[in-house]
Amino acid sequence: MGNGVKMRLIQTIQSTRREEGENVGYDLKVFSGNTNRPLAEDICNILDTRLAEATVTRFSGGETHVQIDENVRGCDVFIVQPICENEEEGISPNDALMELLILIDAARRASARRITAVVPYYGYARQDRKDRPRVPITAKLVANMIYTAGARRVLTLDLHANQIQGFFDIPVDHLYSINILGEYFRMKNLKNLVVMAPDVGGIKMARAYAELLGAPLAIVDKRRWSGQKTEVLNVIGEVKDKNIVIVDDIISTGSSLIEAASALKDKGARDICATIVHPVLADPAVERVENSILTELVVSNSIPVPKRAQNGKIKILSVAPILAESIRRINNDESVSNLFANAKVEG
Ligand code: R5P
User: Fold this and answer.
1) What ranges do the domains of the chain cover?
2) Ligand 1 center–CA 143 separation, angstroms
3) pLDDT tens-digit readout, 56-73
4) Which of 28, 96, 115, 320 has its CA 20 to 30 Å from the CA of residue 217?
């Protein structure tokens, strides 16, 4: 059945359920800020809908200007905006956040029935606890701002820490890209494989990959000296003569990844590749990856990867299918969690 036919069928079922008094399937509208418009367009293509019209620009003084250009009264509105940099569009993570908040505010004031913030990369997630005196918990502040702006549901992907869901008092649908990134490695059918968590925080997700790929798990015991510098203290597990897939949620400067890869090589590992969900790719990550012993780095398009980083070892897989399917399910009041029934990512 084609996508168009499927959507029409869904709409008919929704109208029937609505006539029977159920609160499902209100007109769905997907908007995007400027951080990752191609991802929002891919989501809309899969949903067989068009990206709704909004003007998101800057006033000459640098302030963000938003105008929603179509009626959203009574609609189920989804706003797609990762909180990250878009180097090519000249957008900082803070610009991205302001665009998201102002879009939510505009939709709320235009009488949208419900607004869902679709945040494929939840920026500031690494500031999720008070680990030193007099530091903020910015991940919580961001959650407060999204709620205060008017979002009543959040759809996000591979949070740095699962507990961030608890920073919201509204429903959070937390998706995992293992369905796409893990599947890529499963299809490769790699032999003699070990899955590696590059720090203790990443064990749970690495274990889910290990189970999916039928491989044992190893762990890097890492110490972070600064935002840019990490050091590997130990490698826990057997890696000699093994092929390795390193699994992590974020690559920022690339220090954690490259230090882990070198430590594995020193311990006699063979082919080393990695999969990391969110390609923050702060300088000098791209150069580090390209000059490293890694054979491949597979990332998602939760964050736009600049063109300069697209012709080497970095491979990008789209998470649009899981975001689109989740949006469809939310709009239709269906379960989202059972999308991940086969991946042992929780618990
Ligand atoms: C840390 O807990 C994260 O999971 C990543 O390992 C870290 O953010 C990567 O940062 P960098 O690439 O700068 O080492």
Assistant:
1) 4-176+320-340, 178-317
2) 21
3) 999 999 999 999 999 999
4) 320
Looking at the structure, give the CATH architecture of the domain made up of residues 178-317.
3-Layer(aba) Sandwich (3.40)
Ligand 1 pocket by Cβ (under 6 Å):
126, 198-199, 201-202, 230, 248-257
> Which of 124, 256, 275 is the pocket-test mutation for ligand 1 (most atoms within 8 Å of CB)?
256
The mean per-residue pLDDT over the stretch 148-155 comes to 98
Q: Which CATH architecture has domain 4-176+320-340?
A: 3-Layer(aba) Sandwich (3.40)
Q: What is the pTM of this model?
A: 0.92
Ranges assigned E (strand) in the chain: 28-32, 54-58, 64-68, 76-80, 114-119, 153-157, 172-175, 193-197, 217-224, 230-236, 243-251, 272-279, 296-300, 314-317
- In whole angstroms, what is the distance from residue 82 CA to residue 90 CA? 15
Which residue numbers are catalytic?
Answer: 222
Gap from CA of 314 to ligand 1 centroid (Å): 17
